[in-house]
Amino acid sequence: MSTTSRVRREPPRFRQVAVRRVELRSPRLTRVTVAGPKLEGFVLDEPAASVRLLLPEPGGRRPPQLTWNGNEFLLPDGRRPFIRTLTPRRFDAEALELDLEIVIHGGGAASAWAEAATSGDEVAVSGPGRGYSVDPDASSFLLAGDETAIPAISQLLEVLDAEVSVRVRIEVAAPTGRLELPQHPGAEIEWCELAAGATPGDALVAAVRAAEPTAEDQVWVAGEAAAVQRIRRHLFEERGLTRSSVHVRGYWKTGRSESD
Ligand SMILES: Cc1cc2nc3c(=O)[nH]c(=O)nc-3n(C[C@H](O)[C@H](O)[C@H](O)COP(=O)(O)OP(=O)(O)OC[C@H]3O[C@@H](n4cnc5c(N)ncnc54)[C@H](O)[C@@H]3O)c2cc1C
User: Fold this and answer.
1) How far, in Å, CA of 96 to CA of 17, rounded?
2) How, if at all, do strands 140-145 and 165-172 pair?
3) What is residue 125's predicted lDDT score, i.e. its pLDDT?
4) In sequence order, what are the residues at sequence separation of 6 or more whose Cβ sits closer than 8 angstroms to the Cβ of residue 252?
5) Is the C-beta atom of 26 inside 6 A of ligand 1?
6) For position 3, what pLDDT does the model report?
7) Which residues neighbour 213 within 8 Å (Cβ) at sequence distance 6 or greater?
8) Which of 10, 26, 32, 203 has CB 3.0 to 4.6 Å from 171, enough for a Cys bridge?
9) CB of 46 within 8 A of CB of 131?
């Protein structure tokens, strides 16, 4: 048995960018547009992909220098930097600008950064990581997620063929989380509010159950990790769906920072 630890290939470098615009999409979702010449060559060709956002250290004004230790990026003193995963919502290759939409949930580095972001603030982004390949033969989709999935669901609504039917279920932690989504002629959108004191994902799990997805549907789900696990089990064990028609991804974990 080998005793050497596995060394991972270094992921793409972070590109330094600066905030160009900030727009409140709702009191719970802030769109931050970052831009800069380092975005030259960035290619976004799949919806629901991911980027990694490197934030300044608390009190800092620009993203720190990082070193790759064979497994992860670290600060020069060995601590973990503030790196968060987000959806690259829109990329404009001419203007070299990238929109990120960040949930203001009141308790994390990315949420706090987005809440305070102003033009000129420096951060860095890397990616994009793989997105969702839309089945061109599917005629019916169920898209379900919490507020962190709103950027990805919005992109999917923009790219899905006008002829397909799309059922959308989105859980919001407060009524103010609702916002206008891209128009799709076949879309039927249901917003589900999380009841006071409920576990994140409870309303989403109930909404997916009520939607009664069948083998005809392509199902895309993202949100709180334990909630999407419950949905995954329901889809496979109770509704008998197959792996090829289901895409489920945990986007965050209750009680756990992405730095952990
Ligand atoms: C592929 C992918 C795409 C994603 N796209 C987006 C996106 O476009 N926009 C977006 O906002 N998020 C997105 N996320 C989720 C995001 O990475 C996490 O929510 C992340 O934890 C936020 O970082 P933070 O610094 O605000 O909180 P952290 O420091 O990571 O967490 C601090 C505390 O806040 C809690 N927390 C984290 N997120 C939430 C939340 N949404 N609601 C309530 N409590 C929370 C944690 O459980 C923890 O207790 C995506 C995740 C993945 C994997």
Assistant:
1) 10
2) parallel
3) 98
4) 148, 223, 224, 225, 258
5) no
6) 46
7) 142, 219, 235, 239, 241
8) 203
9) yes
